[in-house]
C-alpha cells in the first residue's frame, strides 16, 4: 500500500507515554494519512467514521478461529496457551450468526427494557449513598468511590447473584478484559487464560446455586428463558452472565470516569450542564462520543473486503477505531475534537458498536451515566480535579485507573 508523502510513514503506535495520556492526536494522524491501515504487526485498522460504521454493520465475523496464520495465531502457539477462546467462545460478542441470533434472542427475553428501566430507583439509591460518602471525605479517587463500584453492584443486584467473593470476581473480570486488547504478550495471554477458567468456574457455581434458589431477578429469568422449546445450556448461561460482568461493567467505569474528566477539563460545558440539567441525556451521548469507553472493536474477514480502493484479504483481523471515528471531522464537522453537550447528532456516535453486535447493555449504561454524572454535577458545584490522572494502561479499553477529585 502507498504511504503518506512525509519522511516517516504513519503507523499505529500506541506504545508511547503521549498516547496513553491522549491518543486522539495520533488517531487524527491515522485518519488523515492511513485511514485504511495495513499494520506491520499483521492486522488492519480503519479509523474514518463512514468506514468504521460500515464495518460494524457489515456482518463480518467476530470469531477468532477465522484469523489466518500470522502474528496473532503464532503468539498463542508460542505462549503455550490453548486456542479455545474466552468463556469457551459462547458469549454473544464472540459468536457469529446463526449462533449469535439464537443466543441474543434468548438473552433478550430476560434482559428486557422493562427489567433495565426497573433498576433506575436502585441506581439512584446507590449513587446517593456513594455521593454521601464522597461529601464526607471531601477528596476521593472517583474511580474507586463511584465509577468502579456502581456498575459492578448494579449488575450483581440485577442478576441476583448469591454471596460470592466479589473482590475476586472484580479482579478476574478486569484481567479477562485484556483479551480484547491487540496483544501478543505471552504473559498477558497466560494470565487471561487462567482468569477465564477461574471466572467460568466461579460464575458456574453461582448459576447452579440459583437453579435451586430461584427469585425475581435477571439470573432466574435467564435460566427460565425459552423459545419454542430452546433454552440456554449451562455453559451458554455461564458465558452470558460472565459477559455481562466483564463487558458491561468495565466499559461503564470508563463512561463515568471519562465523562467526568471531560467535563472537568471543559469548564464551560460543565457550567452549561449545571445550569441546564435537562441537557443530561444528550450530554451523556456527547460524552460517549468525545471519549468512547471502548476505543477499538474487531472483525475478521471471511472473504475479500473492499474499502476505499483497498482489498483486505480473507482471514484478516481488522481493528475498528471507534474512538477515532467518533472525532472524524468529515462526519462531525470542524468542531469534532471539541466537547459540545448540545451537539444535535451526538447520539450517532459509535461508542456502542453497531450492527448485530450493538452493545446489549447500552440502555443500562445510559441510565447509569445519566444518574451518576447528573447527580455528581448537581450536588457538587465546587467539583474539581485534585491531582494527576493515572491511566489503566489498556488500549481498547483505555480509561482512568485513578481520578482524584475534590468536592
Automatic annotation (TrEMBL):
Cited InterPro entries: Cyt_P450 (IPR001128), Cyt_P450_B (IPR002397), Cyt_P450_CS (IPR017972), Cyt_P450_sf (IPR036396)
GO MF annotations, alphabetized: heme binding; iron ion binding; monooxygenase activity; oxidoreductase activity, acting on paired donors, with incorporation or reduction of molecular oxygen
Entry keyword Protein biosynthesis: no
PROSITE patterns in the cross-refs: CYTOCHROME_P450
Top-level taxon: Bacteria
Keyword Cell membrane in annotation: no
CDD domains per UniProt: CYP164-like (cd20625)
Keywords, ordered alphabetically: Heme, Iron, Metal-binding, Monooxygenase, Oxidoreductase
Protein family (similarity comment): Belongs to the cytochrome P450 family.
Name recorded for this polypeptide: Cytochrome P450
Native source organism of the sequence: Streptomyces bingchenggensis (strain BCW-1)
Phylogenetic lineage: Bacteria, Bacillati, Actinomycetota, Actinomycetes, Kitasatosporales
Gene: cyp6
Amino acid at each position: 500500500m502507498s504511504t503518506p508523502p512525509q519522511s516517516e510513514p504513519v503507523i499505529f503506535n500506541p506504545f508511547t507515554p503521549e498516547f496513553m495520556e491522549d491518543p486522539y492526536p495520533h488517531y487524527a494522524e491515522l485518519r488523515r494519512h492511513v485511514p485504511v491501515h495495513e499494520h506491520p504487526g499483521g492486522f488492519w485498522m480503519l479509523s474514518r467514521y463512514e468506514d468504521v460504521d460500515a464495518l460494524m454493520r457489515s456482518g463480518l465475523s467476530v470469531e477468532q478461529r477465522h484469523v489466518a496464520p500470522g502474528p496473532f495465531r503464532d503468539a498463542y502457539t508460542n505462549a503455550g496457551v490453548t486456542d479455545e477462546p474466552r468463556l469457551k467462545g459462547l458469549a454473544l460478542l464472540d459468536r457469529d450468526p446463526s449462533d449469535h441470533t439464537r443466543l441474543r434472542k434468548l438473552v433478550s427475553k430476560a434482559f428486557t427494557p422493562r427489567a433495565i428501566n426497573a433498576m433506575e430507583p436502585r441506581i439512584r439509591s446507590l449513587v446517593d449513598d456513594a455521593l454521601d460518602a464522597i461529601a464526607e471525605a471531601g477528596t476521593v479517587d472517583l474511580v474507586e468511590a463511584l465509577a468502579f463500584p456502581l456498575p459492578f453492584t448494579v449488575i450483581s443486584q440485577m442478576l441476583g447473584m448469591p454471596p460470592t467473593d466479589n473482590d475476586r470476581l472484580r479482579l478476574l473480570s478486569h484481567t479477562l478484559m485484556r483479551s480484547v486488547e491487540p496483544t501478543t504478550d505471552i504473559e498477558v495471554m497466560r494470565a487471561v487464560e487462567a482468569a477465564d477458567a477461574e471466572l467460568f468456574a466461579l460464575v458456574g457455581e453461582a448459576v447452579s446455586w440459583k437453579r435451586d434458589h430461584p427469585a425475581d431477578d435477571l439470573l432466574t429469568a435467564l435460566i427460565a428463558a425459552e423459545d419454542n422449546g430452546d433454552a440456554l445450556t449451562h455453559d451458554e448461561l455461564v458465558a452470558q452472565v460472565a459477559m455481562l460482568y466483564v463487558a458491561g461493567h468495565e466499559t461503564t467505569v470508563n463512561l463515568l470516569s471519562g465523562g467526568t474528566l471531560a467535563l472537568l477539563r471543559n469548564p464551560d460545558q460543565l457550567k452549561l450542564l449545571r445550569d441546564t440539567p435537562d441537557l443530561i441525556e444528550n450530554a451523556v451521548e456527547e460524552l460517549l462520543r468525545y471519549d468512547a469507553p471502548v476505543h477499538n472493536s474487531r472483525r475478521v474477514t471471511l472473504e475479500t473486503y473492499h474499502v476505499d480502493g483497498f482489498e483486505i484479504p480473507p482471514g484478516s483481523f481488522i481493528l475498528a477505531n471507534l474512538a477515532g471515528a467518533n472525532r472524524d471531522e468529515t462526519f462531525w464537522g470542524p468542531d469534532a475534537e471539541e466537547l459540545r453537550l448540545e451537539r444535535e447528532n451526538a447520539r450517532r456516535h459509535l461508542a456502542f458498536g453497531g450492527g448485530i453486535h450493538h452493545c446489549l447493555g447500552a440502555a443500562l449504561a445510559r441510565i447509569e451515566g445519566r444518574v451518576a454524572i447528573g447527580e455528581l454535577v448537581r450536588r457538587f458545584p465546587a467539583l474539581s480535579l485534585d491531582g494527576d490522572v493515572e491511566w489503566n494502561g489498556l488500549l481498547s479499553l483505555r480509561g482512568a485507573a485513578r481520578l482524584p477529585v475534590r468536592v
